[in-house]
């Protein structure tokens, strides 16, 4: 089980959502790329998790619940305090980045009896961080613009008042990949949001491919396999259990 909710107003500008995972027994998990960074408490370690370069295979520990918050696409470098290109894919213990500040948060999280308490600790941690860093809104705006079907990086750069080289520098620092690679991730994430519609026979794969900006269904298939390791039909089948052609 996975449940999302809105963050408190103090961090809403940089936090997309706060969430709780109800785990139970130890199990593997696939985390698909979305360009965001999650701060995740698994009961033992507070980690920054990034998946922008491809699907992440993560082993969930045997705990009752986990908690986290998702930083908006385009703020990772500023909030974490380093270029995202220097952060390895997967989970990085936050104490390796924020030292005493992260260890203090881990101590508070270890004393939380409910997911809600843990989410509040994470929100307070980010709010504290925001007093010491300046978030550049350009990368947030770039991510939003690049998520639009048919977006072109040269036009996005011109609209934001920077050169294409400048856009690439900002996006690589705050997300970890260049604008074109981020655009591919965001387009794939747009498809993931429509998987339920295909599963419920409210849309076809071809319709969804066109709607989110792929050239055709074959283009969707190639990108889906590259970013998730599975075909579009396999992702729909994993949702419903029924047979869906690729």
Identify the notable features of this structure and list them briefly.
single chain; 246 residues; alpha+beta; Arc Repressor Mutant, subunit A; 6-stranded antiparallel β-sheet; two-stranded antiparallel sheet; 8 strands; AraC_XylS_family_regulators; transcription; transcription regulation; sequence-specific DNA binding; DUF6597
How many individual β-strands?
8
Biggest β-sheet, characterized? 6 strands, antiparallel
Number of domains: 2
Terminal CA distance reads 27 Å
Output the strand order for the largest sheet: 1-2-7-4-5-8
CA gyration radius, whole angstroms: 18 Å
The DSSP helix count reads 11
pLDDT averaged residue by residue = 91
Fraction in helix: 40-55%
In one word, what is the shape? globular
Please state roughly what percent of the residues sit in beta strands, choosing from under 5%, 5-15%, 15-25%, 25-35%, 35-45% or over 45%.
Answer: 15-25%
Structural class determined from secondary elements: alpha+beta
Could you state the oligomeric state of the chains shown? single chain
Order of helices and strands: EEEEEEEHEHHHHHHHHHH
Note poorly predicted spans. 241-246
Describe this structure in words.
By secondary structure, this protein is α+β, with helices and mostly antiparallel strands. It folds into two domains: 2-130, no CATH class; 137-246, Homeodomain-like (Arc Repressor Mutant, subunit A), CATH 1.10.10.60. It is built from eleven helices and eight strands. The strands form two sheets. The protein has a six-stranded antiparallel β-sheet. It starts with a strand and ends in a 6-residue tail after the last helix. Keywords: DNA-binding, Transcription, Transcription regulation.
């Amino acid at each position: 089980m996975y449940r999302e909710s809105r963050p408190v107003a103090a961090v809403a500008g940089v936090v997309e959502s706060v969430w709780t995972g109800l785990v139970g027994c130890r199990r593997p998990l696939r985390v698909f790329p979305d360009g965001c960074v999650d701060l995740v408490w698994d009961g033992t370690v507070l980690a920054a998790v990034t998946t922008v370069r491809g699907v992440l295979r993560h082993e969930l520990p045997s705990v009752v619940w986990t908690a986290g918050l998702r930083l908006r696409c385009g703020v990772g470098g500023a909030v974490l305090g380093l270029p995202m290109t220097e952060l390895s894919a997967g989970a990085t213990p936050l104490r390796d980045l924020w030292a005493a500040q992260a260890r203090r948060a881990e101590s508070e999280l270890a004393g939380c009896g409910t997911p809600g308490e843990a989410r509040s600790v994470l929100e307070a941690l980010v709010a504290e961080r925001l007093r010491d860093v300046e978030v550049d809104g350009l990368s947030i705006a770039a991510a939003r613009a690049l998520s639009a079907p048919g977006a072109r990086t040269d036009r996005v750069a011109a609209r934001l008042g920077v050169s294409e080289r400048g856009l690439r520098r900002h996006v690589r620092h705050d997300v970890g990949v260049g604008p074109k690679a981020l655009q591919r991730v965001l387009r794939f994430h747009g498809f993931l949001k429509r998987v339920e519609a295909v599963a419920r026979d409210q849309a076809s794969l071809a319709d969804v491919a066109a709607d989110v900006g792929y050239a055709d269904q074959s283009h969707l298939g190639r990108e889906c396999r590259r970013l998730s390791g599975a075909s579009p039909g396999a992702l729909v089948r994993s949702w419903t259990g029924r047979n869906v052609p690729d």
